[in-house]
Each structure stands twice: as C-alpha cells, then as structure tokens.
Amino acid sequence: MLSKRLLLAIPLLLGSCIGDGLPPSVWPPPNFRLVVEELHREGRSVHTVRRFQVDAEGTVIYGTSSQPLVDDKSGASWPVFDRLSIYRLEPKCVRALARRLDRIGIGELVVPASGVEADKDIGLVIRWRAFQQKRNLPTSGRLRGQMAEVMAIVSAHLPDGEQFEAKMSKPVVTVLRGVPAPATEAEGALAAYRQRLAADPEDEDVLLAAYALACKTGPREAAEELLQQWQTLKEGQRTSAFGDSQETPAQRAKLLAQFLPKS
User: Fold this and answer.
1) Does one domain contain both 158 and 219?
2) Do residue 40 and residue 133 come from a single domain?
3) What's the pLDDT tens digit per position in 33-87?
4) Does 65 reside within a domain?
5) Which residues lie closer than 8 Å to 204 by C-beta, 6 or more apart?
C-alpha cells in the first residue's frame, strides 16, 4: 500500500534544494509551467511513458505509464500513470529552476528539424511557459547544447533513481532531498489527482491523466464525471490541436468515451 505517502506529499513533503537561497526576484512568474514528456513510438501509436510537470507554486507531478489507453482504429494513445510521485519544491528551489531555464535561453530555443528526425522510436517534448513566452520543443536522438542543459536541469529535480530515456552530453547533479519515490496504488493516485484538480481545475494534463486512470480502475461514475469536467473545460473551443489532429473537442470526447468502464 502506497498511499499515505503519496496523498500527503503535497502538504507535508517538500523537495528541499541543496545550497543557499536566492535573493528576491520576479521568478517564477505566476503563469510559470514546465512539462516534459518522454514518448515511445509503437506502430501507429505514440505513447507518453513518462511525464514531469511543475508549476509556479513548485508542485511537481511525476509519473510513468506502462499500460496506456489506445484507440484500435486510430492508434491514438492516452497515458495511464500507474507510478506517481507528487511533491512541492521549496520557493527558493522553484525560483532557481525557473531562473536557470531562462538563463540558458529556453525562451528563444528552436529545435532543428534534423534533430527531431534523428530517432523515430523515442523522443521528448518540452512545453514551457513564462510571462508572455511559450515554447513547444519536440526532439529525439542525443541531446546537445541548450536542449541537453534543459534536460540536465529537469533531471536534477526527479525522484531518486528516476530518469528520462534520453542520451545527454551534460551530467545530471541532483539538487533535491526528501522527495517521495513513485508509488503504485491506483486509488491513491486518483485521489492525488483529484486533490490537484481541486487546486487547479483547468489543468488539462492532470484532468486527462485522472480520466485515463479512472477508466482503468472504475467505477464508471468517477470516469464519467472527469470526462464531463474535461468537456466543460473545452466548451466553446471549436478546434483543438491534439498532436497533428484537427479534431474538435466533441470528436475527441467521443473517442475518449469508448474507454469508460462498463460499470
């Protein structure tokens, strides 16, 4: 049984940074957000097998998925994060993380097309937001330069023993202590997702992850509630960029509904 450690991770377990704090600054801005996903291609499907995300409050959600929901017809895949760790970075730690990413130039970073094609089976997507800037950075193959620096910084904030399957030219030096190891109890993970949604009901990544997990664990009513919450969030949005797809939210909801538990 995992779950007491997982469910208490947000209020009680702080990932402390090693070293001294930083002087006051504008970092992180209120809209700061970083999401890093590891993708594996299998036939027509591209599976998200690992995700790290952190917001301006320093709340980290790290999970791995081994049994995704997959649409047989289209190959579309949604991760079911069956190993999950949720923890909160101390203010000085999330500030240092945000500032370091800015200093290495993530806001101006452009991934060359040749780098994306280097390895078609395993890849990464980095999504970053701060102030008025956003970046969506897909890449694969060996990481070099600024991308390697970004991933070295991210990897330094993972739980002990966890890593992205990416070849890097930069060493990883852990900057945290006291971070909970990923745990593997579905009910506890779903409860933790609900706790995060109560704090931020517009976090679509968490909402879809919670829905996928609810489809695997049941009951049907819990999954239906989360699907309706997602539809409400997307209400009024005519189109949505789900990868290269031009599906509307209504069409995507119909696809998602096929995974609802029978009871």
Assistant:
1) no
2) yes
3) 999 999 999 999 999 999 999 999 999 999 999 999 999 999 999 999 989 999 9
4) yes
5) 230, 233
Q: Specify if 263 maps to a domain.
A: no
Q: What separation in angstroms does the CA of 251 have from each of 28, 135, 246, 255?
A: 36, 27, 10, 6
How many separate domains does the chain show?
2
Q: For residues 74 and 119, which has the higher predicted lDDT (pLDDT)?
A: 74
Tokens 């939210």 -> residue: 249
Q: In terms of Cα–Cα distance, which of 124, 167, 163, 160 is closest to 142?
A: 167
Helix-, strand-, coil-residue percentages of the chain, each rounded to 5: 35, 25, 40
**Do residues 217 and 103 share a domain?**
no
- CA-to-CA dists, residue 98 to 80, 91, 94, 147, angstroms: 28, 11, 6, 15
Between CA 19 and CA 13 the distance in angstroms is: 18
Domain around 220: 201-257
Same domain, 236 and 119: no
User: Under a CB-based contact definition with an 8 Å cutoff, are residues 125 and 36 in contact?
Assistant: yes
Residue 248 included in any domain = yes
My answer on whether 23 and 103 are in the same domain is: yes
Q: What is residue 106's DSSP assignment?
A: G
CA nearest neighbour of 210 among 112, 34, 56, 86: 86
User: Of the ranges 101-115, 180-194, 221-235, which is most confident?
Assistant: 221-235
Return the closest-CA partner of residue 98 out of 35, 34, 9, 165: 34
pLDDT at 248: 83
